[in-house]
Design goal:
Blueprint lengths: L12 E6 L2 E8 L6 E6 L4 E5 L3 E8 L18 E6 L6 E3 L6 E3 L3 H7 L8 E5 L11 H15 L4 E7 L5 H11 L7 E4 L12 H12 L6 E6 L7 E5 L3 E3 L8 E3 L6 E3 L5 E3 L21 E5 L8 H7 L4 E6 L13 H10 L3 E6 L12 H9 L2 E2 L5 H12 L7 H9 L17
Parallel strand pairs: 6-9, 6-10, 10-11, 11-12, 18-19, 19-20, 20-21
Antiparallel strand pairs: 1-2, 1-5, 2-3, 3-4, 7-8, 12-13, 13-16, 14-15, 16-17
Length: about 425
């Protein structure tokens, strides 16, 4: 005769005996009163009929506190500041829905990612939790100020920032300008898949980030899976990389640059190119920004009247993603040249970036490029469009750099390796 069935609570970790087989996992909320849903340890959800369950054993209550000592800061390992801003890596399983939700405190982070605390002591800073598409320049500036304070703290060995993936390269680019030449590693990391999934990339990305934060590489970097396997991570220059796949674990790729290093979970670091080294200089935080800038992608047959909107709305500058070596329509009904001249005359600064991403703009190969440059468009070589957009807002945030000539000079200045002097064939993905 079966034992009376006890109703479990969502979030409890349990062991179910079903047809004489054991299944362990976290109970989820079920909308069918005759079925129990279980989140298995491998990350998959499975449903069991209650009538088939002969026994249920409680392993751990949902809100039961672990009595073990919290060793986030032991004083025996190097101290790293970890700034949680959101994204999949800063979320956890919601036991009532089977989905994910934000982590709300450092204790939750400690329980989900215990591996990182074997490498470093962590001081967790949680300024806000946002999906990356909800961030603005104000968030970039806020992060920059927090990171700058950590970098100028002699006890802190490095900084890790957990962030959503979709617009991570915008934040990384902003930090590369707002922080300038840093004195310690600044590591932005992420995950494509949540921590409760068996194929999650979050744990290895964090472990590799911890090793990177202790390294000699004083750069603003993205650290994450280099391939589909759990082999090693790449450390990528923050303003020369981009998310190139919607779901793969190795979604981020370097653009017109080589990775800085391979970072192995064991702690081994294989340097692949030159980098700025750790030093004792104080970091000067420069978070000024003017948000009256725009990024416009040119497409065939596009009406140039779009520039009238930005002029009317008081925008100061526009980056246009141009085709090939740097072209837009320069003849026929929608010839952009007259409208560009008119917009520039009214004070709008217009810059060109390559929508091809790889390679460099060159206005001198074909006549359309020469016409556009003569009209006042400034060509930004091999810069990423997103980096150009962020840089333009940062440059225009400084009164002393405003004006057609002053802004052009600063935009063409290679402030933090956003330009390459020479592009090698190995840079292409």
């Amino acid at each position: 005769m079966k034992k009376p069935f006890k109703k479990p609570e969502p979030g409890d970790k349990v062991e179910l005996i079903v047809n004489r087989q054991s299944h362990r996992g976290i109970l989820l909320e079920s909308h069918d009163s005759s079925v129990l849903l279980l989140k298995l340890d491998n990350g998959y959800n499975i449903g069991f009929k209650k009538s088939d369950i002969s026994e249920i054993k409680l392993i751990e209550k949902k809100h039961e506190e672990n009595n073990k000592e919290d060793k986030r800061i032991s004083g025996k390992k190097p101290l790293v500041d970890l700034i949680m801003t959101g994204g999949t890596i800063s979320s956890k399983l919601d036991s009532s829905t089977g989905g994910v939700k934000w982590l709300i405190n450092s204790k939750e982070f400690f329980k989900i990612y215990p591996e990182i605390f074997n490498i470093v002591d962590i001081r967790i800073i949680n300024p806000f939790m946002k999906a990356s598409e909800n961030m603005s320049f104000k968030d970039w500036a806020r992060i920059a100020k927090i990171v700058g304070k950590s970098l100028n703290d002699s006890q802190v060995k490095g900084v890790i920032i957990t962030h959503g993936t979709d617009f991570l390269h915008y934040t990384a680019s902003a930090l590369s300008f707002m922080l300038g030449k840093v004195n310690k590693p600044v590591v932005l990391t992420y995950s494509q898949r949540s921590s409760d999934r068996g194929s999650s990339d979050s744990r290895m990305n964090l472990v590799c980030s911890a090793h990177t934060a202790l390294s000699d590489i004083a750069e603003v970097m993205l650290v994450g899976h280099a391939n589909l396997d759990d082999e090693y991570c790449f450390a990528l220059q923050g303003n020369k990389c981009r998310k190139m796949h919607s779901s793969r674990r190795d979604a981020f790729k370097p653009i017109n640059a080589n990775p800085i290093a391979k970072i192995f979970p064991s702690g081994k670091i294989e340097i692949l190119r030159n980098y700025h080294k750790r030093n004792k200089e104080k970091v000067k935080i420069d978070p000024l920004y003017n948000d009256k800038v725009a990024l416009v992608k040119f497409y065939p047959g596009q009406n140039p009247d779009i520039l009238d909107y930005y002029v009317k709305q008081g925008y100061k500058g526009v980056v246009i993603e141009m085709s090939g070596l740097g072209h837009v329509l320069t003849e026929g009904k929608y010839n952009w040249i007259p409208k560009i001249k008119q917009a520039i005359k009214k004070g709008l600064l217009i810059y060109a970036a390559p929508q091809t991403l790889f390679g460099s703009l060159d206005p001198y190969v074909y006549s359309p490029g020469r016409k556009l440059e003569k009209a006042g468009v400034v060509f930004l070589k091999d810069i990423l469009p997103e980096t150009a957009f962020v840089k333009l807002g940062w440059v225009l945030g400084h009164k002393e750099w405003r004006g057609t000539i002053a802004t052009k000079i600063k935009m063409l200045e290679n402030i933090n390796n956003e330009y390459n002097e020479r592009l090698g064939t190995s840079f292409f993905i």
